[in-house]
Amino acid sequence: MQTEETLIEQAKSGDQDAFAELVRRYEKRVYHFILKSLRNSEDAMDLSQETFLRAYRSLSLFRGQSSFSTWIFSISHHLCIDFVRKQKRRGRHIPSVNEDSPEMQNLTDERFDPSAVSEKREIVREIDRALGSISPDLREIFLLREVAGLSYQEISDILEIELGTVKSRIARARAALAKELHGLRNNSSDDASNDTKVR
Amino acid sequence: MAECSEYLELISRSVDGDLSAEEAEKLYEHLAHCPSCSAMLSSFEEISMMTADSLKKPPAQLREGVMASIEATKKRPWYSRYRFTAVAACFALVVLAISYTPLGDLLSPAQENQVLNEDTTRSAPMMDTAPEAEVDSASENSPVLRAAEAPKEEAAVEAKPNSQAAPKSVADQSKKSSGAGFNPSLIPQTPYTSTFANYLLFSAAEAPEVLYSITSDQTVDSTVYYIVTEDEFSAVRSALAEAGSEVQIIPGDPESSESLLILTIAE
Questions:
Q1: Nearest-CA residue of chain A relative to B132?
Q2: Number of domains in chain A
Q3: B76-89 pLDDT, tens per residue?
Q4: Residue A193 falls within a domain, yes or no?
Q5: What is the pTM of this model?
Q6: Which of A150, B68, B94, B152 falls between 20 and 30 A from B239, CA-CA?
Q7: A80: domain CATH number?
Q8: Residue numbers of the domain that contains A16
């Protein structure tokens, strides 16, 4: 398997196959980072493609002084910010949940029995819902860490914040999510208990 | 417990494997006696694991669409690849014509040299990387050509009262005039109808790393445009100055809060 550095150099020389391989290696993380940020599959598809097209067009600018991950997700990050700003100007809001996301459809796995799949899907749905409830700053940094898989230093470079701030903000994001999840699960059990009482 | 708040970050960092041996020992010693923090760690690990697990392969059309767009730009007619070269040649003729006519008085000697130098650096064939969607707004928007044609379009531009005929020197051009107006004829032609506070022209070879964090707005042929804030403009300008790069800064509309970076990709 070719190294990333080799692929980048080949892509810079015009090798489309090399760039296609870079896209293959990053598409999952980029797509899900944007999907969980914007919570709309169509927008995520558009901006994911735009991320890679912009990367391709400005590949000559990339000199390896930062990691390719930092570069790609810097592009994604700014595209998302611009998109949200445009949406706000048009009076549109980012949905809190994306019920029809492909990830919800693809959770069926032959390794799991139907009840486990259902439970797993519910947990993922809960996390997704909780993500929509926390502040955008915390959501963003959580996604850069957990979905984009970036290191603390890479996140620090993209967001232009101190390393210490990255660490504390990620901790706060996780705590906020855990609190939201706890609240969602308590509400669910309350609903179930009320249903039982009604019967 | 209030003391548990100091362990929150350690718990989070342990999920990422970021703890030193000392920190790990301190944390696990606390966890052995704190069910609440233990539950917090379990919760963080579950969130991390379930999030990672939910990342399935994206639709095939993502990669297909990207590569199709790239392929489409490669298949543009052969003459479109050299459109910029033809335009640059026309520009050179226009500049020569201007310099030997009374219209040449519009430009100071310093600016004239600037324009001629710019022509020299931009006459090389350009790499064809623009996606198909941007082909239609191609060579006519070349900033080099449009700078020469600007005098014809002066009447269409709203001129401010007491506008200066021309800046005094190249060095002074980076300073904004405080309310005294600006000379639209010096502004390079761009795909934008609005004007910007400053126009900074440079080549890809000189692009500073700070540019990575700025998303470009659009690419036309081999020219990439970035709309930037005042802070971003200052950061790029400083980085270029530190690197000793030769760039061209053209002052624009001081009323505008945004500047335009014009980057030329040369092969």
A1: A53
A2: 1
A3: 655 555 555 566 66
A4: no
A5: 0.60
A6: A150
A7: 1.10.1740.10
A8: 1-94
